[in-house]
TrEMBL record, chain A:
Entry membrane topology: Multi-pass membrane protein
Compartment annotation: Membrane
Coiled coil: none
Pfam families: NADHdh
Organism: Teichococcus coralli
Keywords: Lyase, Membrane, Transmembrane, Transmembrane helix
A GO MF term: lyase activity
Major localisation: membrane
Signal peptide: none
Transmembrane segments: 12-31, 64-89, 101-123, 144-161, 173-192, 232-249, 261-282, 294-314
UniProt name for this protein: Formate hydrogenlyase
This protein's GO CC annotations: plasma membrane
TrEMBL record, chain B:
Membrane-topology descriptor: Multi-pass membrane protein
InterPro entries assigned to the protein according to its UniProt record, in alphabetical order: HyfE-like
PANTHER family: HYDROGENASE-4 COMPONENT E (PTHR38601)
A GO term from the CC aspect: plasma membrane
TM annotation in the entry: 6-27, 34-54, 60-84, 96-120, 132-149, 156-176, 182-202
Species per Swiss-Prot/TrEMBL record: Teichococcus coralli
Compartment(s) of residence: Cell membrane
Keywords, ordered alphabetically: Cell membrane, Membrane, Transmembrane, Transmembrane helix
Main location: membrane
Name of the protein: Hydrogenase-4 component E
Length: 319, 227
């Protein structure tokens, strides 16, 4: 009997995530432009770009293999699957029992793998450079993410994101130093994973500094639209993930009925909006790091996550 | 007291902030950023002590908090900035140990502090124990900063951040007399003054605050690193 509402919630959630992703990208761009005193494009612009790109004919390099054709679908599919698992406006969706944080990390890693393969497929220098940088950053972000997951697993007794979120929402865990450290580590990981400012500049095509854009140079038309959609969906996913873990207020249970859903939707929209504003302000006040400083930054995030886990482990073990 | 109570949670979080800022001190590369981080640590310490004063109902701690806020968050950073301006020290910090290695050692020191403090204080309340562990971590990280930095001014900041850890420990322990805290603060003031004097002397004799220039005079190396 709870199958129908949870299925409905799941479908609504996935549709919303897909719709919200490009909107968030546009919103952050618009906010940044306003903060810098520019007019700024309409937040709907990424959606318009996507629709335009979908109508264009894709051009492939002569030596492109089947990887270039298949990788965008694989990456978008993996990201969409991960996005379906992250709780948004409601807990207890149909796929909630599968919403393991480790599975989400794996799906994101799969999408990154597909992106790097596609970048290297044609064999241009920029694609290879971008792929190499992306994967070397991932060598730091993935362990940091796993250590934060470890801390949550010790606090909540499970790695299921839905269960962790519900537990945090009830406030049984309290404010802990470990949570603070894990939140800082996850923020740094989220910035790096989405190619946002201290790590990568999403607004530039300057050759020597770009990471994410360098990997998309060879794609066009439909494939570029898929990659853009994947990036936008990843941003929505990460902001929802952070909101579910660190702003766990107002999320509705899946079988609570339409009115509770409405409040959950409202809370979710407010949380995403706040995070988008915070991201825009952050990107306006800080400069991009040199690429060689990024491992230091991400290494610090890794160590913060490690510190949180060590603190929790020792203090629960010895208490 | 345990997790889930507001007074405990906030005290824990504020002490954690002080500890986190100690890590940030180790992470920063520029002198001005180090000083700003130190000022932030002083402010966080003042908040933590004031919260302890409210939670324990000890008005004496408000005085300590006020002293920390005025001295550590405002006056000492201003003096350090003036010193930097006067000496023209706008260069970056050169750690003797790399930044990453320093941070790794820092995590090890925090683990060590927890391993030492928690078994030794089995009788006390949970709040005092974890606070003590964090305070000892701040002390150890301050020492680490003194060891890993070459410039006298960052070593002074390491010493002062070490004293922040002492104040944090003193605030966490219920019923510590004010005299002890004040004498600690006075001692550190004397130490800071001496460090400043030392820095002035060094500057006068070597025209630099880089302590690696002194290695030659310890007789450890025949050749100086710089002419």
């Amino acid at each position: 009997m709870t199958l129908l509402p949870s299925l409905l919630a799941q479908l609504l959630h996935l549709a919303l995530m897909l719709a919200v992703g490009p909107l968030l990208v546009g919103l952050v761009r618009w906010l940044k432009a306003r903060l810098m005193g520019r007019q700024g494009a309409n937040p709907l612009q990424p959606w318009r770009d996507l629709l335009k790109l979908l109508r264009k004919q894709p051009l492939l390099a002569e030596n492109a293999s089947v990887v270039s054709l298949a990788a965008p679908y694989a990456a978008l599919g993996a990201t969409a699957a991960a996005a379906a698992l992250v709780p948004g406006f409601t807990h207890g969706m149909l796929l909630a029992p599968m919403a393991d944080l480790i599975l989400i990390a794996g799906l994101l890693a799969l999408a990154r793998f597909a992106l790097a393969l596609a970048a290297m497929d044609v064999g241009t220098a920029f694609g290879d450079l971008g792929a190499a940088r992306e994967m070397s950053f991932a060598a730091f972000t993935e362990p940091a993410f796993m250590l934060a997951v470890l801390a949550f697993a010790m606090l909540a007794g499970t790695t299921n994101l839905d269960a962790v979120g519900s537990l945090l929402q009830e406030g049984m865990v309290g404010l802990r130093v470990t949570l603070g450290l894990a939140s800082l580590a996850l923020l740094a990981v989220a910035l790096a994973e989405n190619g946002r400012l201290p790590v990568d500049n999403p607004a530039t095509h300057l050759e020597l500094t770009m990471v994410h854009e360098a990997m998309l140079l060879e794609s066009s038309g439909r494939q570029l639209a898929l990659w853009e959609m994947q990036g936008a969906l990843r941003l929505a996913l990460w902001l929802s993930l952070l909101a579910a873990l660190f702003l766990p207020f107002g999320t509705a249970p899946a079988d609570a009925g339409p009115l509770a859903w409405l409040f959950g939707l409202l809370a979710w929209a407010i949380k995403l909006g706040l995070l988008a504003v915070a991201l825009a302000i952050l990107e306006s006040v800080i400069a991009k790091m040199r690429v060689f400083r990024v491992p230091e930054f991400l290494g610090a995030a890794l160590l913060l996550a490690l510190l949180g886990a060590v603190f929790l482990f020792l203090s629960t073990g010895l208490a | 007291m345990g997790f889930g109570q507001l007074s405990y949670d906030v005290a824990h979080l504020l002490a954690g902030t002080v500890l986190l800022l100690s890590f940030l001190l180790l992470y920063q590369r520029r002198i001005s950023a180090v000083i700003s981080t130190f000022a932030a640590q002083g402010a966080a310490l003042a908040l933590a002590v004031a919260w302890q004063g409210w939670a324990q109902g000890a008005p004496g701690l408000y005085v300590t908090a006020l002293v920390a806020a005025t001295a550590k968050a405002v006056l000492i950073p201003l003096a350090l900035r003036a010193l930097v301006r006067r000496f023209g020290l706008h260069r970056s910090v050169e750690p003797a140990l790399g930044i990453g290695a320093g941070l790794i050692v820092g995590v090890g020191l925090v683990a060590l502090a927890i391993l030492v403090v928690l078994p030794a204080t089995t009788g006390a309340g949970a709040l005092a124990r974890e606070d003590l562990a964090m305070a000892l971590s701040v002390v150890l990280l301050g020492m680490l900063m003194m060891i890993t930095r070459r410039q006298a001014i960052s070593q002074v900041i390491g010493l002062l951040s070490l004293e922040n850890g002492l104040v944090l420990a003193a605030a966490g322990v219920r019923g510590l007399p004010l005299v002890v805290e004040l004498s600690t603060a006075a001692l550190v003031l004397v130490l800071a003054g001496m460090a400043g004097f030392f820095a002035f002397h060094l500057r006068a004799s070597f025209a630099s605050l880089d302590l690696s220039l002194l290695h030659r005079h310890r007789g450890e190396r025949a050749e100086a690193e710089r002419p």
